[in-house]
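Troubleshooting entry. The earlier prediction with 3-methyl-2-ureido-butyric acid gave an output that would not parse, so I re-checked the input for stray whitespace and re-submitted. Clean input:
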Amino acid sequence: MARIITVGAAQLGPIARVETRAQVVDRMLALMNEAKRHGCDLVVFPELALTTFFPRWYMESQAEIDSFFERSMPGPDTQRLFDAAKRLQMGFCLGYGELADDGGRTRRFNTAITVDGTGRVIGKYRKIHLPGHAEHEPWRRFQHLEKRYFEVGDLGFPAFRASFGEGREGILGMAICNDRRWPETYRILGLQAVEMILIGYNTPVHNPPAPEHDALSHFHNELVMQSGAYQNGAWVVGVAKAGNEEGVEQIGNSIIVAPSGEIVAACTTAGDELAIARCDLDLCASFKNTIFNFARHRQPEHYRMIVERRGAVPPA
Ligand code: CDV
């Protein structure tokens, strides 16, 4: 039996700063119900899906900053997502701000979890590539203070097994937004035989340090996820928080990419929208066993030698 998993890229439109968790969860539940009607096994929500993208503001009050974080998962507002997963027998992937108590020390991460169709958390990832800056930079039209509000994730890029019913198991992994631009993200998961990578993002069209890239934001979004999928023989599901959020234009362009690197489904609006694809996990083998057969063709020893020798080459 083919291992076909029907996946929904559950893009969210803008979330206003005043919007409550309950209101956002209502929107997410509407997408989950729609996904179920289309036969989805799994839906993927964006990065920091429960609130507006708060790192765009410089805030001094820790209480204000912490109001954007979840202290438990599930929590009072998110329990309904877990209940829906169980009721619909459909998994979901959710990005959120995690406030963790680590033996009395409070830690804050940009986190994603995958929950299965029984309502159980089967995978957790904390964002490693935190973009932006740590200090207030008033010259910017808007801030990007991820380096101030989050610690670098400490869980690595763990791949994990997921079951979608009899004979339909797969190896999944997660990444968050800026991670998708780094080949290491996909390769570390690829080395764990990942078959589907779930990625939520919040990407402003305007990049304050390099506005000359603005016109290329869709191109770069597709470029990195298509190449990451192909070079590792894995499906990639990339899901945006899209549209004009609190005056900042964010790209949509949520896509589902096959292991061939081809885009097989895409959102076309900048609002709440579902893009759906039937993803055959067995298709991964066609790439993992041939052109990207790591065991046969990768040369890690040689890569190490090249990096070691680099120091000896005089700069041009
Ligand atoms: N949330 C992000 O990680 N956004 C970055 C922006 C700042 C470039 C991204 O890579 O999309």
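This one parsed fine. The pocket of 3-methyl-2-ureido-butyric acid is lined by residues 47, 131-132, 144, 177-178, 181, 201-203, 207 (CB under 6 Å).
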